[in-house]
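Per your request, structure below.
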């Protein structure tokens, strides 16, 4: 199967994520940052970063990690003057190496500020309008006993417990979440078990918001998919959305070729190596599994991320600079996989009425009771609670609410 990327014909596998196809073709610089036009590549491959935003068949801001290849697509890099490798607008990064506050740049200077703001509007942003208007999709309303959001270990376990009272939605095209990467066989068994217990499983369905019109009103959750939009009113909402991959704190942490360890593991499971000489940084299940699968392509294993001073390279990762015995030493690598405890994906939980608290070791985590209750009729389970391993607790949520 073939697709067109910036005028070049590439081979791709039908059904695989578009970003995977491009990385396999050696094209992991997929976009430019909207302000300074620094090179950008995928980091999470999990719909939580902007490194793979592309224009696909005239539609802007398509997440390459979510678009499944059909064949024949025309894929273009957005927001460039020149090409994705040589963007003339990246001169702004050279002129303002410490960043730029465009709100104040020459603000108030008569005759100049208007020109600066006009130029900023033209070179910034995220893509042009679509080539054609989108066809309207149908909308519907549903009522369910239990809505489970997140199709990983915790969500599938919850759905299995509630059986035919449960509707589980997962924004990815496949179920299993992190478990599918770490233990594919176990994930398959859990998916089959949830389905056998009667739970309805919907993939490629995004929970876009959870709201109450008034404090005493029922909770409503907006679901979006290619089939249309659905406003669901659940009696109980179970949030099992896992976490977001953390970004490393060392210098040049935005270079293409730097991936979360989870993203790297996803590529390796798909038969794609993120590089020929790969560094794996940090401790965690994703890092360990990726290091094992890399085999002889594992060039550097760094357990303590604190010793990494910087990623080196201008347009792509070329190495890692480590602190060692009071000095700094450069190691040549062409890709880096970074692992650290994930940040809980609590955004929907807060929309639904929950709250967060700050933990010095884990950052902001949902504030839940011993039963996982975050708000009235809203529960959190699994890694979204901030724990690495969390067992499903029925607590105040009965198996047939």
């Amino acid at each position: 199967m073939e697709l067109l990327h910036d005028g070049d014909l590439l081979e791709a596998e039908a059904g695989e994520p578009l970003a995977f196809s491009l990385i396999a073709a050696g094209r992991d610089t997929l976009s430019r940052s909207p302000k300074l036009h620094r090179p950008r590549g995928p980091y999470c491959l999990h719909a939580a970063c902007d490194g793979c935003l592309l224009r696909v068949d005239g539609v802007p801001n398509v997440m390459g990690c979510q678009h499944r290849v059909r064949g024949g697509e025309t894929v273009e890099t957005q927001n460039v003057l020149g090409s994705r490798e040589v963007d003339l607008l990246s001169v702004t990064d050279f002129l303002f190496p410490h960043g730029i506050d465009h709100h104040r740049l020459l603000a108030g200077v008569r005759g100049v500020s208007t020109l600066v703001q006009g130029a900023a509007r033209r070179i910034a942003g995220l893509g042009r309008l679509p080539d054609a208007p989108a066809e309207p999709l149908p909308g519907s309303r549903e009522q369910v006993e239990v809505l489970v959001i997140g199709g990983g270990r915790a969500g599938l376990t919850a759905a299995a417990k509630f059986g035919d009272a449960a509707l589980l939605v997962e924004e990815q095209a496949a179920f299993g979440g992190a478990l599918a990467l770490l233990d594919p066989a176990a994930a398959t068994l859990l998916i089959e078990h949830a389905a056998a217990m009667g739970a309805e499983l919907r993939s490629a369905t995004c929970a876009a918001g959870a709201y109450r019109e008034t404090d005493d009103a029922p909770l409503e959750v907006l679901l979006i998919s290619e089939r249309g939009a659905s406003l669901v009113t659940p009696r109980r909402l179970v949030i099992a959305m896992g976490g977001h991959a953390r970004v490393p704190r060392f210098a040049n942490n935005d270079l293409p070729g730097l991936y979360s360890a989870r993203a790297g593991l996803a590529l390796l499971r798909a038969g794609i190596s993120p590089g020929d000489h790969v560094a794996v940084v940090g401790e965690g299940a994703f890092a360990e599994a990726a290091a094992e699968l890399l085999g002889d392509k594992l060039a550097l294993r760094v357990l303590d991320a604190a010793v990494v001073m910087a990623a080196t390279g201008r347009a792509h990762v070329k190495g890692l600079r480590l602190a060692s015995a009071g000095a700094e030493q450069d190691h040549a690598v062409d890709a880096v996989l970074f692992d650290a405890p994930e940040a809980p994906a609590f955004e929907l939980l807060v929309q639904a009425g929950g709250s967060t608290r700050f933990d010095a070791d884990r950052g902001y985590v949902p504030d839940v009771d011993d039963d996982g209750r975050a708000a009235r009729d809203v529960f959190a389970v699994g890694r979204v609670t901030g724990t690495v391993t969390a067992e499903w607790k029925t607590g105040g949520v009965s198996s047939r609410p």
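The longest helix spans residues 184-196.

Regards,
D.
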